[in-house]
Amino acid sequence: MNKRRVVMLTETALLIALSTVLSLVKIFELPYGGSITAFSMVPIMIVAFRYGTKWGMFAGFVNSLIQLLLGMSTLSYATSAVAAVAIIMLDYILAFSFIGLAGVFRNQVKDSGLSAVAGATLVCAIRYFFHVISGCTVWAGISIPTGAALVYSLSYNATYMIPETIINVAMAFWLCKTLDFSGDTIMRAKKSTLSGSTFVFTSLSILSIIAAIVIDAVTFFVPLQNADSGELDFSLMSGVNFPVIIIASAAGVVLCVVFQLLAMLFKKKSTQ
């Protein structure tokens, strides 16, 4: 086994382990599955950015098996063997394996940041699709009303997949603009103008938006969980603290702009 193969296997194992750990850091969790995690999809995306879609899909598949083991209790809700298989395939194997397609645009789009955004958005959309299909078929009549299964599944899964997508895409973009994943080792991007104070303030700018999104999601969706059934109940909308959402959103935007202006200022000074 050559040195590069050893490095590839080691990196992949470490990134899968990191993805697993981050998936356990749940910022917000819905009663019948689905959660906003701490960038848990990004490590698998990095594998795809570095080694392509085939190896990325392999890493995604291994990750899906780990997620399945962690979520085995979900299978207790299955009403039949066919339903159990459908849950395994749709909510785990397919949903998580396809994260490995995140590097599909790495050779088609020259800008690494845009390539990361396109790939990350695509795999998040694919994951959302599989969860929606699972919701309106397997989970219909169990945790999702049979009469409006598709609409309910679309809205239920969107409650965590939209913020999950935004924070993972944002992190993937930032990493690909600051680091070079194409070489034998992960290094600082040669073309990156982010250095010193510029790097710090640009990072804070992105984190400000991410923090605002997480606060908004938690503030909005937690009150919508029915205390008796645990279901997502939009009739409880009156209990949402909209002032907090407005303040958090405004603060996130303001901080993002301020930090970005500071980053631009320090960048200008460094080039003079």
Short description:
The chain is mainly alpha-helical and 272 residues long.
Report on the architecture of this protein.
It is a single chain. The radius of gyration is 20 Å and the shape is flat. The protein has a two-stranded antiparallel ribbon. It has a two-stranded antiparallel ribbon with strand order 3-4. It is mostly helical and 272 residues long. It contains 7 helices and 4 strands. Helix 3 packs antiparallel against helix 4. The mean pLDDT is 85.
Give the overall form: flat
Rg, Cα atoms, Å: 20 Å
First-residue to last-residue Cα separation: 49 Å
Which structural class is indicated by helix and strand composition?
Answer: mainly alpha
Segments where pLDDT lies below 50 for 5+ residues? none
- The helicity comes to 55-70%
Strand content: under 5%
- Main β-sheet, spatial strand arrangement: 1-2
Count of individual helical segments: 7
For the largest beta-sheet, the strand count, sense and barrel status come to: 2 strands, antiparallel
- Report the count of strand segments: 4
SSE order, one letter for each helix or strand: HEEHHHHEEHH
Question: Could you tell me the mean pLDDT?
Answer: 85
Give keywords.
272 residues, two-stranded antiparallel ribbon, two-stranded antiparallel sheet, 7 helices, mainly alpha, flat
Q: How do the helices and strands line up, and which of them pair or pack?
A:
Elements: H1 3-24, E1 26-29, E2 35-37, H2 42-70, H3 81-97, H4 112-137, H5 149-178, E3 179-180, E4 187-188, H6 197-221, H7 242-271
Antiparallel strand pairs: 1-2, 3-4
Helix pairs in contact: 1-2, 2-3, 3-4, 4-5, 5-6, 6-7
